[in-house]
């Protein structure tokens, strides 16, 4: 029997096997990473707190009160930057357009512009940079003057949230960690899509007043929007680690000072948790080609393909989803299952080709 006929016959027989595995496979989780210590730290905090820890491609590793509304402070500037970039991308104004700083834009608090002279001109590029790098309040007000609020509020409504801003003081609405998670992912998703997005991402990677930078190594990219007023301190982070992830920490404070030891303890534990996550070996039944490759692996890939097509993951972790994409085309689908069966058939002929060598050759084509 030819290899092609063997693969076709095996694929035709997959339906029953897939249904059987679908009924038997539980929701997968990593065996050796634990959120217990992080949970203890977070729940031991005596003031308001909301936390999300999730991989960049959607696996929620930990959350605590993610839908708790807390005064958002300057966090609103992140989704507003997303909105401005959408407008710029659509041809509404340009990065090089200038606006003059006048007394009508004066606003106290954080920033660079407020320390400068009236009559100074700033480009939209500079305003985006200052708004995200230094959380500049005047830069934000000037951008709101240029781009308005109605379309911004409509964009947020289209995301499924009731958050909105109004003039003349368009800041500090109540926000949730879930909402900020969406905003950060929107920004990161487009960070290489054009100059305006790149300006914003560079500003976030170099933003000031971020307490979590105290505990993260300098070689790990940390894109952060912080927000702080007299009652709260928040940090919304995209961490460019081995497994990129989003960490959102929203906290209430007293005496107008953030609890830096608490913030640093969360950041330190999250790094340990993610190290454990990345080092955890697959569980029995996971997609894993390091030792055996057989029809059961192909079944899981087909099941994962169907689940992903329906918007789910069938409990697959981010690493498992990537493992299923053996042809490295960005999708987990029947093509991957066919390749797995092809390797299984090849192994059945006595071939000593290692899985890594076989699938690596496929990736290189």
How are the SSEs ordered, and which strands pair?
Blueprint: H1 3-12, H2 14-24, H3 36-43, E1 49-55, E2 60-64, E3 70-71, H4 77-89, E4 98-100, E5 121-123, H5 124-133, H6 137-147, H7 150-158, E6 174-175, H8 177-189, H9 195-205, E7 221-228, E8 232-240, E9 245-252, H10 260-279, H11 295-309, H12 318-324, H13 334-348, H14 355-364
Antiparallel strand pairs: 1-2, 1-9, 3-6, 4-5, 7-8, 8-9
Helix pairs in contact: 1-13, 2-11, 3-10, 4-6, 4-8, 5-6, 5-9, 11-13
What's the gist of this structure?
The chain is of the alpha+beta class and 365 residues long. Helix content is 45%, strand content 13%. Strand 7 and strand 8 (232-240) form a beta hairpin.
Characteristics of this structure?
single chain, 365 residues, alpha+beta, Beta-lactamase, 2 domains, two-stranded antiparallel sheet, disordered N terminus
Write up this protein.
The chain is an alpha+beta fold and 365 residues long. It folds into two domains: 3-31 and 287-364, no CATH class; 36-279, DD-peptidase/beta-lactamase superfamily (Beta-lactamase, 3-Layer(aba) Sandwich). Helix content is 45%, strand content 13%. It has helices at residues 3-12, 14-24, 36-43, 77-89, 124-133, 137-147, 150-158, 177-189, 195-205, 260-279, 295-309, 318-324, 334-348, 355-364, and strands at 49-55, 60-64, 70-71, 98-100, 121-123, 174-175, 221-228, 232-240, 245-252. Strand 7 and strand 8 form a beta hairpin. It starts with a helix and ends with a helix. The model is unreliable at 1-31 and 282-287 (pLDDT under 50).
